Amino acid sequence: MPTGYRELVRMQGEGKLVCTIDITRPCLLLYPLNQWQLVEQKLMLLSDFDPQEAPIKRLILGNANDCEMDKNGRILLSAPLRQHATLDKKLMLIGQVNKFELWDETQWLAQMQKDLALVQTIDFSNTTRLKDLSL
User: Taking the model in full, what pTM does it have?
Assistant: First the structure.
């Protein structure tokens, strides 16, 4: 993990992370502990009986694993998590404001191609949030 990410995780989560699957894409989500607690609160509001909400809650919480960075910024990932994201040798760690995404490099490059193609079709003036996005 690059030094900037290590420091961010240490500041926000005391070196503690929660890793779970992304239910829409073949990657893992890594949350500093304080950010995971916010996600957990939102998940607690989902019903255990609603046929649309229960599986989402079950998948995200059921796959959540506590991780702690060692002094070199490394974490151990369980086999089921690695299998979900088809993690092999080359990985990509992508910062996403309140969390990180962990991708297999090949999967990440393919996703970037899909995203770039999709962005070319978006009419930014049609949505308030995208229209107001200024980078």
Answer: 0.83
Do 98 and 51 touch, CB atoms closer than 8 A? Answer: no
97-119: pLDDT as tens digits: 999 999 999 999 999 999 999 99
Written out in words, the top-level CATH class of the domain with range 3-105 is alpha beta
43 C-beta neighbours (distance < 10 Å), count: 16
The greatest distance separating any two alpha carbons of the chain, rounded to the nearest whole angstrom, comes to 47
Provide φ and ψ at 23, rounded to 5°. Answer: -80, -5
Question: What phi and psi, each to the nearest 5 degrees, are found at residue 109?
Answer: -65, -40
Instruction: List the chain domain ranges.
Output: 3-105
Instruction: Dump pLDDT digits (tens) for 21-51.
Output: 999 999 999 999 999 999 999 999 999 999 9
3-state helix, strand, coil in the chain (%, to 5): 45, 20, 35
Q: Phi first, then psi: what are they for 92, rounded to 5°?
A: -125, 125
Please report, as a single letter, which amino acid is at residue 3: T
What is the distance between the alpha carbons of residues 119 and 115, in angstroms, rounded to a whole number? 6
Q: For residue 122, what is the DSSP state?
A: -
